[in-house]
## 1
Amino acid sequence: MGRWMAFLSCLAAVSCGRQDVTAPSSLPAVRYEAHIVAGTAAPQGVELTNPYKADPAVAKKGALMFAAMNCDGCHGGDASGWVGPSLSDQRWRYGGADSEVFNSIYYGRPKGMPAFGGTLGVDGVWTLVTYIRSLPLPSTVSTESWLEP
Amino acid sequence: MPLVSRVAIMACIGAGVLLCGLAHAAGRPGPAGEDGDWKMPAKDFAGTRFSTLADITPQKAPSLHPVWTFSTGVLGGHEGQPLVVGKVMYVVTPWPNVLYAFDLSKEGYPLKWKYRPDVSPNAIGVSCCDTVNRGAFYADGKLFYNLLDGHTVAVDAATGREVWNTRIADVANGETVTMAPMVVKDRVIVGASGGEFGIYGWVKGLDAKTGQLVWTARNIGPDADMLIRPDTFKPPYEGGVDVGAHSWDGDTWKTGGAPVWGWVSYDPELDLIYYGTGNPSPYNPEQRVGDNKWTASVLARRPADGALVWAYQFTPHDNWDYDATGAMILADLKVGGKDTKVLVHFDKNGFAYTLDRAAGRLISAEAFAHVTWAKSIDLATGRPVLDPDKQTGVSRGNVRGICPSLEGGVSPASPAAFSPRTHLFYTSTNNLCMDYAASRSTHLKGTPFIGANSPYIAGPGGNLGAFIAWDAVSGKKVWENKEEFPSWSGALVTAGDVVFYGTLDGWFKSADAKTGKVLSKFKVGSGVVGNPMTYRGPDGRQYVAVYAGIGGDWALLAGDVRSDDPADVRPPADFMKNIARHTSQGGMLWIFGL
């Protein structure tokens, strides 16, 4: 129990772990391939990339955080989908770029994804992004067939 | 004399005996009046879902056919039921909770008005089990109903204008509202969902004229919060000062759940409202040692001031999410040869309970579904005789073969019906079991407080559901119509001795109330999770109405039925691979006639 409390209070403190990650000072960007651009110029913003890249140790930490923060309560164990959609099937309602997944967790999204940024901080959110990125792609379900073989 | 007949006769005396004579004549269209309306969710305060309309009989039912249909404009679980008052039908949709008023006196039933409340989409993310609504209640010229984001509204039935709007629940705290209100004696009784979010569960009484909050009663916690007064509270079994706090370790009752999302009934002679409470939070039982009173219980309160008169706990220290929010049906039955005022309740835990509704003592409790978590219910103590191998918790790892599953022997979303003619109860049932692996959960406001993974398996026999007729005196099934899929609709029974129910794969059926023989069926385009109702139209004929639109818990468990969101594509459920072959999401209102 003591270890869990230490872990959770660490998350809330933002500054635990890496010292060199800072909060964005201007609006994070959203990659606009997924959106229609009026005219030819996509809006500019600060491009965010995951400082942890694909670090497996961070992904493992993110897996623990995913359960500790009750993400599995809505997204299912292993993020396979439950009340909220699957986070492992590469189908993204709000975009799958680093910035977009970061925004979804940090600021929340319409239809009820809560904003976790204030509780987890920038570092905590990137840890979760690293975990989500590490999830293996499940087999695709484009076609569901009931035909007799 | 049965409660229902007595109420009907009182209404008759009010309306003039001659009119009532005409209304009760079988087969002849009668005047639209008290008899032909459906003003509250379960038809009457006793919760019977029984109609005295008898035009539709087992001989005539095979010619039932759709006469009208309307798309509600919303895709998702359509629980609840329409209301009919005079010449108008009222319909509440799932979120965003639009209220429609259809003019039944004009061809095509055009709308009189459409009320579109302001309701926050943030409530969607805090709704565990689809954004359903279980209906409105008509009283005093107004429609009363709840919005998902925790408001109760009163809408003028003639004009559709909002009369008052009261915020009752806090979405940021994990509270949403799906239940239909109960309106009795100038009180609007409402409660909140949130057993998956660690709420401190409650019911509230609002003033029906102004919407002002009159009383708040917690379902768990110390006596003062629970509105327990020493001279008033007389539980039939365990009691004691602050038992709602002492039956929890430490202050775990503060995030203990006890949501109220089901049905409320009322006995005007005893002046008691009856309702069930849902599960304790979190699902992992080792985080809340003790009986966890009064979760998974039936509570009897005085509507005017909310005072608790008695309470009985169906599932002490619930380990399995056995919410007790299902219908509490009030009936007068002959028990041991004596006319007895009872309350009958089909619980998620698989037992059908018959209680004395004046004092709450158990008369009988028999399994109506396959049950493994308990061997029986001890009538002397009121407590279940547990199978210790089916207890769950982090220390127990994955516990296998618990029946019923988390969906219950019947879902509280599928209210039963009672016929004072056959003296039988009619209900959907599920035939599902589960494995259950608990995990530690931390309460973080606005996020799920659960701690369990519970995959389902089919129960014995292979059919995932059934619609049954039940004798609550003998505790036996009288007949059973097995269904391929879990049965999730409510029940309707009429004086024509016909029952109505819908299936998850989208069939709306009528059956002989005495034998169960299916008389008619029609594919209504999407799974039926709502409750059929019946009324007499302005043309004097009897009609039956029902929603189609699969959802509720099936929005989580049968995600492959969805087609509307390419970002949310789910594989079929292991235990129910074929449902999407027969239904997608929908949102239709159907009316059937002879």
## 2
Amino acid sequence: MEPWVKDYIWVIVLLPLIGAAFNGLVGFKLDKKVVSWVGCGTVGAAFAIGMVAFFSLLQLSPQHRHLTNHLYTWISVGKLKADAAFLVDPLSAIMILVVTGVGLVIHVYSVGYMAHDKSYWRFFSHLNLFIFFMLLLVLGDNLFLFFVGWEGVGLCSYLLIGFWYTEKYNAVCGMKAFIVNRIGDFGFIIGIFILFWAMAGRGVWTLNFMELQENAHLLADVKLWGVGVATLATLFFFVGAAGKSAQIPLYVWLPDAMAGPTPVSALIHAATMVTAGVYMIGRLNFLYLMAPATLTVVAVGGAATAILAASIGTVQNDIKRVLAYSTISQLGYMFMAMGVAAFSAGIFHLMTHAFFKALLFLGAGSVIHAMSDKKDMREMGGVRKRMPVTFWTFLVATLAITGIPGFAGFFSKDEILWMAASTPNPIFENLPSLLWIVGFLVAGLTAFYMFRLMFMTFFGECRADEHTKSHIHESPRAMTVPLVVLALFSVLGGYFGVPAILGGSNRIHNFLAPVFGGGGAGHALSPGVTLVSTAAKEGAAAVQGSHGLEVTLMVFSVIVVLAGIFVANFMYRKHPDYPARLADRFQRVYRAVLNKYYVDEFYHIVFTATLLRINAALAWFDDKVIDGIVNGVGWITRRFSSVNGVFDNLVIDGMVNGLAESTISAGGRLRKIQSGRIQTYLYYVLGGILIIVMIRLVV
Amino acid sequence: MVAESSLLTWVVFTPLIGVAILLFVKPEREELLRWITLAVTLFVFFLSLPLFFKFNSDTYLMQFTQKIPWIPGYGIFYSVGIDGISLFLVLLTTFLMPICILSSWRYITEKIKQYMIAMLLLEMGMLGVFVALDLFLFYIFWEAMLIPMYLLIGVWGGPRKIYAAIKFFLYTMAGSLLMLVAILFLYFKSGMNTFDILKLYEAGFPLELQIWMFLAFAVAFAIKVPMFPFHTWLPDAHVEAPTAGSVILAAVLLKMGIYGFLRLAIPLFPQGSLYFTPLIIYLAIIGIIYGALVAMVQPDVKKLVAYSSVSHLGFVMLGIYALNMNGIEGGVYQMLSHGLSTGALFLLVGIIYERRHTRLIADFGGMQKRMPIFGAIFLIVVMSSIGLPGLNGFVGEFLILVGAFQVKKIYAIVAAVGVILSACYMLWMFQRMMFGKLDKPENEEVSDINKRELAYMLPVLVLIVLMGVYPSPFLRRMDASVAHFIALSQGKKEVYAFEDKAVNPVSHLLGKSKVGKSDGRMRDAQFTMHDAGFRVKRNR
């Protein structure tokens, strides 16, 4: 029996689009209330239908949990066919709920946060448009439609980062985000081509996810440039993911994206869009399983990003930037999970992260709002008493992200660490331990920078000027209610995935099993699976035998978290002068970290500046050389024709006067051409044709 | 209303009736002149709509054909018809003409009567080129269209109009004369006593002849496209031309070059074309990257858009020379997309130029504040131009790259870099013009887009979205003709298969430039008409 909601999945996607169009077209004439109701209402309704879809899915037996809603054929050329069709399966169902759920909360929050903005309607229109594209990305049942959403969210990100466009800085940051994302998309589209080409070569003309999964085994021995095609395609897809999800080397745009309004940072640059890369790997897990090399790259890249970003996060002073680096770092965790084929762990962390990171940003927004739009933590401090709701919810989120037992982040992060440590890697034997050590260190660093942020912002004396100080106040209800809701989820979210060892049944893992396989839900892995998945299975089996390891790792990570908190407490509460002394002592290191290891500067010199120099050189070449040749030819012809003209006048004067004159005038006497000579010229041409034709006929 | 067989003739020559009417209107009655021209162009557009709706997409044969002896002694016919490729170019032309007239409403203040007449003549010439099925007729239209365009630039253009007009004219003329020689040579060499393009497809010229003939045609068309390195007339012509001139130039005239390849150069001389395929692909790819890079540093918006055209048309050429369904259909689709989005860009530049009398990017900044609606439209058009999925530009670009990838992976990969670069130059330009602080006092009083301007921008926007979201009605009508074109480009006479092969038979030849070694499908140099065991029946 197919649930009725199957044929209405498109409504989920369409609703936010209607909201965007309505607010975008007539919003500027309307009252803010109407705009907010339309903006929030459409997302809320989408969430409600998403819920229905989710529960309908639960009614089905696990192996039948996929609903396809085919709308129409989008592009069809030759055998290439791209459908506008949506797919709801456990993976996309979770994503719909995260996107519309967190989205709804943030929309409501924006009602308060943006209340005084003149372009209120534009904000809601863009935000709704973002939800639309994000849902398209999540629900698209083929890579083409997925890509539409993928680029679309990039557009919305661009628009919203530069929302306050009158500041050039904001606009430039938006542009940077879009262009860096385009570089990633370039990789992604090449990946699509490779996959499409390889599948077509095997007679399967499709990029539909379900069909790809069924036929992925055909690619097992297809090679391109000496590399397995699955490896190559997945690597290129990962380039796209690195762009969208801010991983090394394309992470540079995300910190700058903080130029956008805070709800945007919460929704797009923390909870949803930046996790699209993780979702993509989950969606294409069957391909990644065939490519152990890519998985290794993903895992190593994720781990490297996690620690790099965490280290930068420890010294930043802008509250949003700390959170931005934290996001990059947490995304690194997710990629680490994906890289060890622990897909459900990655998606689980994606979900809990969406809750607590959105909460952190919204809380930060609430503080920024109260501090008269100041973002520098050095000018904050002690706001805890004036903003109790913000403080307590922020504390919950902080405990969640640092992984204090009982909070959401604990369950998801520790599952990742455990999987990383226990999944053997077929290429590097020592990788699991290495990944775990990095993850372990990042956990400590995370605890440190989060509590540093906590202490600098909420504790101690307020360091703001008197004017700002007098304005500090708790935010309006529209902003605090969302905080409370998200705080609730930052605690409860973890209980969807309590591991067996702690007496849970890891529900999310079982729910996702039909998509990711290997979950004991009766899903047969495709025959093309290779090394890693087998290894992963063996590893999982081995691990199941040694629950002791899991518990040991948990204890270790709790210890390092507590250590991080202790150090932060020591440095920023007990001895506030200590950080400055430390920075002075290790000035060089401090400077390098503070300046983000000069990666932006490096990119600027190597890429941007070089590109512009090449462009200028080419423009010169175009103007002087190519066009110079053209003009030179013109000049020579003109000289020649004037000589010719003199010759003509003297020698064959009158005989072919008209013809010669038209040549001369082409060079010199321009006015005459304009007054109608060209028509005459054409008559000559036509006359010429007739003469030639006649001559030929006679001869 | 009009019999199907003479519909095309009506579409092509109705502008001429308009000219006749205009001749009787006094030059002082400016409003009347404008309204009459608008009415005529609108009428032509509605007249052309049945071409779309009554088009039979199941056949590659020419439709709406009409053939009347003209100069029978030389086998010259007045012969017109359209297939799935020319259909859209005709529609693009008739669609854009009323928009161009509307955009000139206040822009053109001098010699309005002459201007309107020139526009109508131009329309007739362009439509004629797209429907002519007789080489002689084709050439007449091809040349006839040059004159009004030349006048548009030379009379109503900017400060360096004379230089630009002459450059445009001489450049194109040089190409067309080469083509003329080739056409005449063809006529006598074939011994068929015909200028009928479809009949000449079957002539099967010897390889060496094909190479030279193709070269002559290709140069003429490559100048028109324009392909690197024949492109330098384009920035000059664009910068100096009035808004409507730029729109027509970008949207329609450049497409004539591509159309020339599709209708004449490739199917007439398939082996010659194959011989030059690698060269053309290289030039196309160079054009994509080079055009984009040079566009990035242009201080003048119109120049920037002009160089972006070089880049976009490089894409089109690449798609066509992929010689498979995806590539060619993508190429044809990209022609239409480019016509719309680049046409729209020029319209927008015209709107802002009318207000500020400058096109230098540096003279703007923060305009979004003064012109929010203009900014929104501008952004949509920019996104369409850089190929954002969901808008028209993506469909063509994507298909082209898929097609190119099937031929040789590196082609698509290098060309795809152009996609990144297009985002760079377009967004940078947009950011510098629209965002930031409004710090120039001259920009303070600029008014937002008015109703007339909105009226002609809206239809373009609707199509931009429609073609991105629902391309099927367009693609479906191309299928048969494109499949037939592929067959012709391989020297086949009939469409053997309607489908694409994973690796196109032509593709393996692309690496080698020696055509003579190709497989049995290629006819050898000795082929004559009588060897052809069969003739394909064609609708005449």
